[in-house]
Design a protein that fits this description.
single chain, 260 residues, alpha/beta, 7-stranded parallel sheet, 4-stranded mixed sheet, 10 helices, elongated
């Protein structure tokens, strides 16, 4: 089978453009880099457009065993793999997936907890929060308009496959909050303000929304006014604040009523 060896190949140039939002939009696709993400996509039976594989990669046999000949990989050289990857040591396996335009109607959703991200920018924080939402049994995560692009390569890597286990949505948070409240779903904001409610004093819920704000500025004031209640975590030491992902983890596990 022919191997694509040139980094100047027309198709390789198109794949490389998936690192940019414009390129992803034009191709309606995004790139997974590395065996763990490709494996998680396969196990979750995600739609995969193409798999790119360095035949000498140690993951080639693992892919073949899991794939069961369902997808014919496109073979690429190590040089091409290095040109596509943003990591220092590419694993030699990639997958190209379509961008999902998922939507949810809270009038139809029976129950579930949702994490809403208001202008959160750091990929590491986003990835940690998505993984924690997955671990806490949340229904999904909603990326607000000023939050980092959920298909950005660093965000995709940071989510480590949890994006295939829960729903990920994008959109105007005010619209989602309004729809939740119309369905009597409580929505909790977060602010470092002792006039807010202690997070331990609101109880646990099967269905609710939890909003986490920007790393430096917190939640937008316009959203703080739309919530059911705004919560704070009392700090007992001398630290001024918690990292947003740490705070989100504390709140998610405190507020989410266990399924069993």
């Amino acid at each position: 089978m022919e191997i694509i060896r040139s980094t100047q190949n027309k198709q390789v140039k198109l794949w490389r453009k998936l690192a940019t939002k414009k390129g992803r939009t034009l191709q309606n696709s995004y790139l997974l880099d590395g065996w763990h993400l490709v494996k998680e996509a396969l196990l979750a039976q995600q739609e995969i457009k193409q798999v790119l594989l360095v035949p000498e990669s140690k993951y080639a046999e693992r892919f073949a065993a899991l794939n069961q000949d369902q997808l014919e990989p496109i073979l690429i050289s190590e040089e091409v793999a290095k040109s596509l990857s943003e990591t220092q040591s590419p694993q030699g396996i990639f997958a190209i997936l379509p961008i999902s335009q998922a939507k949810v109607s809270f009038a139809e959703e029976k129950e579930g907890a949702w994490l809403l991200l208001d202008a959160v920018q750091d990929p590491g924080n986003i990835g940690t929060m998505v993984r924690t939402a997955d671990a806490a049994g949340f229904r999904g995560v909603i990326f607000g308009e000023k939050t980092a692009d959920l298909y950005q390569p660093k965000v995709v890597r940071a989510m480590q496959g949890s994006q295939f286990h829960i729903k990920l949505l994008e959109g105007n948070l005010a619209d989602y909050i309004a729809e939740m409240r119309q369905q009597a779903i409580p929505v909790f904001g977060t602010e470092l303000n002792e006039a807010a409610r202690n997070y331990r004093q609101v109880g646990q819920f099967k269905s609710f929304g939890l909003i986490m704000g920007n790393e430096g500025n917190g939640m937008a004031q316009t959203l703080l006014k739309k919530t059911t209640a705004n919560l704070y975590i009392p700090l007992q030491g001398q630290a001024e604040s918690l990292n947003v992902a740490v705070a989100a983890g504390v709140l998610m596990f405190q507020l989410k009523q266990p399924d069993v």
